[in-house]
């Protein structure tokens, strides 16, 4: 079952990559892509979450623009395409597609009915919005972009939320972090970790800013957080 078809709430369908755990039923986990589509990095992450015991599903959130995007962060042309897709992406529709994906995985016979989300970069922003706008049971953001412009939605968060922030994130400058980090630190359902000296995508294996020690620390915190809240 490498792919499933998900029905969008406003019509149409889109594809999602699925990885199954060794034992079912198991909690579900929506894995939210970066700006490079459902590429090998995201498929490997989805597989790794399945290995941790989740029915892991990674939807194609760019389907409304261009279905099946699968590019890397290795060339300038791919970066340009990724930023073009990011510029065309409708965040509100994206959240609705993620909620449809959440509903889909909860409805799968292999799923216990509990389900959360974890997202990276653009996906980190969307995981924050899943915490604010959906009934997802737990949500994790890795270096989410644009949270400073949506911090007024933090009051709607009622389920556990974990945010990994890169101190020297080139896409989330200090003035942006100053707007959302203190708010989340005071939120009773939120946990924030700031990774000193790290840049954007420090957990992307093979990426320019990959840092194994920080990635291992963040991933361990995510593993414990999900186990505590979805298990």
What's a quick, concise take on this entry?
InterPro entries: AB_hydrolase_fold, Dienelactn_hydro, Dienelactone_hydrolase-like. The protein is an alpha/beta fold.
List strands and helices in order, with pairings.
Layout: E1 3-7, E2 13-19, E3 26-32, H1 40-51, E4 55-59, H2 76-88, H3 91-107, E5 111-120, H4 122-133, E6 139-142, E7 161-166, H5 174-186, E8 190-195, H6 212-230
Parallel strand pairs: 3-4, 3-5, 5-6, 6-7, 7-8
Antiparallel strand pairs: 1-2, 2-4
Helix pairs in contact: 3-4
GO molecular function, one term: hydrolase activity
InterPro entries: AB_hydrolase_fold, Dienelactn_hydro, Dienelactone_hydrolase-like
Pfam families: DLH
Tell me the Rg in angstroms: 16 Å
Q: Calculate the mean pLDDT score and round it.
A: 97
CATH architecture: 3-Layer(aba) Sandwich
* Number of extended strands: 8
Report the CATH C-level class. Alpha Beta
Continuous helix count: 6
How many domains? The number is 1
Tell the overall outline.
globular
Series of H and E elements: EEEHEHHEHEEHEH
Largest sheet, strands/sense/barrel: 8 strands, mixed
Task: Look up the CATH topology.
Answer: Rossmann fold
Uncertain runs are none
Specify the CATH homologous superfamily: Alpha/Beta hydrolase fold, catalytic domain
